[in-house]
Amino acid sequence: MSYPGYPPPSGGYPPQGGGYPPQQGAYPPQPGAYPPQAGGYPPQPGAYPPGGGYPPPAGGYPQAPGGYPAPPGGGYPTQGGGYPPQAGGYPPPGQPGGYPSVPPASGWGGGPGPGYGAPGGGMPQGYPGGPAPGQQPMPAYPGGAPAPSPSMPGYGGGAPAGPAGPAVPAVNRGYRGSISDYPGADPLRDVEVLRKAMKGFGTDENAIIELLGSRTNKQRVPLVAAYKTTYGKDLVKDLKSELTGNFERLALVMLKTPAQFDAYELKEAIQGAGTDEACLIEILASRDNAEIREINRIYKEENGKTLEDAISSDTSGHFRRLLISLSQGNRDERENVDVSLAKQDAQKLYAAGENKVGTDESQFNAILCARSKPHLRQVFYEYQQMCGRDIEKSICREMSGDVESGMVAVVKCIKNTPAYFAERLHKAMKGAGTKDRTLIRIMVSRSEVDMLDIRQEFVRQYGKSLYTSISEDTSGDYKKLLLKLCGGND
Q: Which among 417, 463, 420 is positioned nearest to 168, based on CA atoms?
C-alpha cells in the first residue's frame, strides 16, 4: 500500500540519475524537449551565442550590452510556487553557468517581482577601493555596467562563464538520507505491533524503537490515524503514558510531518524561556521555499497568529529583519549563475561593510536572503578574491550580537549545508550537558535529506564518527533510536 504524505518517498529526493527531462533516447533532445533550440545541441557552429546573438524573450525585454537576455517573467524571484522545488533536484538549464536561459514559452518564470539587483543598475567598473594589497587589479566588466531599467537591470558582460570556484557546487548524488521506505509497510499491521508493545505490564521499548526507526516519515505519520481507527485510542497519549524523558520526546516528534515539527520547534524557540535564536536561524536558513510556506501555513493554523507576527513580537533590530526576510519563502531558486552579477553583489557587500565607516546591514540582508544559493556561493568566492578575506570573517568584524551570529549561520548553511549541521551537532554534544532539543531536531529533520553527507562532514571535521559521538553522549532507549536515525557508523 502507499500513503500520501510528506516528505517524498526515498529515492525521490533528490531525483535519481538521469535528471530532467526523461525522454527516450540520447542527446539531442526530442522535438519539444528542453532546451527548445533549433538544430539540437551543440548550437550552430561559428558563434556563441548561436546566430550572433541570443533572441530576446517574447515581449521585447530590452537586452543589456553584452547580449545576455534578462530572465523571463520580468521580475524576481521566478519560482512559481511548485511543490516542493528541492534544492539541487532540478538540473540547471543548459550547461554550467546557466546559458541559455529558459524561454518564456516554457512557463518557468514567475510573475512580476522586485528587480534582480539594485534599481538604476549603475555600478562602478572595478572594485571599490581598488584591489587588496598583493592582488592583481580586477578587470572592468566586459560590456560595461548593466543597463538601467525600471524593474530589473540587464545582465552585463555577455553570456556568463561557469562558476569560477564557489564552495560545494550542487551535485546530484542520489538519495542521501539514512532512512528509506520499509518495503511493504502497512499502517494497520504497524499499529498492532505498537499496541502489543504497550499492552499489559511493562513496555517493549525495543519493538517501538525497531518500528519507528525503520519507517520513513510518510510511513510513520499515518500510524496516528490508523491507531485511532483500529483501537479507538490516541497513539500519542498512549506513548506518553508508556515512555519517559528524551526517548518519549524523540518518539513523539517522529510522528509529526516535517512542517508540523518545524512549526512546533519555531513556536518553542520563540515562546519558551528566552528566545532560541540559533534554532530560528537553523530552520529558516536551511529549508526551501515550499517548506517555509508550508511551515507558515501550519504555524498560523495551530497558533492563531502568523509566524512573522510571532517573530516580530519576540525579536528586534536587524536580527528581526533577517528572520522576517527568511520566513517569507521567496528566495530565488534558479540553479544558473551569472558571474558578472555575482561580482556586482560582492562589490555591494564590500561597500556595505569593509569599505565604509559603520555597516549597512540592510545590504547584507537583501543579498543573503534573496539570492539563490548557487549564486551566493559564487558571490562568496568573488568576495574572497576581491578583498582577500572570507565573508564570514568580514561579518564578524563588522557586526555583533544576534545579527552577527545569524548572518554567519546563513553564510555557513549556504556554503555547505551538511557541514553546517555537522557543526551544530558537535556543539550540541560537546562539553558538560547535551543540548538534546537540537540533537533531536537535526537527527529527525535531516534523516531523509542529507544525513549521509552530514556523517561524512562530521568525520572530516572532528576525526570521529557521528555514530560514536552519539553513543558516547547519550544512553538507553534514547540512544538506540538516535542511532537508528543516524543509520550506521563511518
A: 417
Q: Quote the pTM value.
A: 0.68
Q: For residues 429 and 467, is the Cβ–Cβ distance under 8 A?
A: no
d(CA 167, CA 421): 16
The residue assigned the cell 539587483 is: 117
Q: Which residues contact 94 (CB under 8 A, 6 or more apart)?
A: 35, 100, 101, 336
Mean pLDDT score, 310-331? 96
Letter for the amino acid at 312? Answer: S
pLDDT surpasses 80 at 19 = no
Q: DSSP letter at 391?
A: H
pLDDT tens-digit series, residues 415-430: 999 999 999 999 999 9
Our count of domains for the chain comes to 4
| In contact, 14 and 91? CB cutoff 8 Å | no
* Domain end call among 202, 217, 243: 243
Answer yes or no: is 407 within a domain. Answer: yes
Q: Which residues constitute the domain of residue 481?
A: 417-486
pLDDT digits (tens, 9 = 90+) for 90-111: 444 444 444 344 343 333 333 3
SS3 assignment, position 155: strand
- CA 367, CA 350: separation in Å to the nearest integer? 12
Residue 466 is assigned to a structural domain of this protein: yes
- Cell numbers that stand for 144 in this block: 560595461
Residue 113 lies in a domain: no
Q: How far apart are CA 400 and CA 407, in angstroms?
A: 10
227-262, pLDDT tens digit by residue? Answer: 999 999 999 999 999 999 999 999 999 999 999 999
Q: Same domain, yes or no, for 374 and 311?
A: no
User: Does the residue 194 lie in any domain?
Assistant: yes
Kindly state whether residues 346 and 411 are assigned to the same domain: yes
Q: How many CB atoms lie within 10 A of CB 418?
A: 22
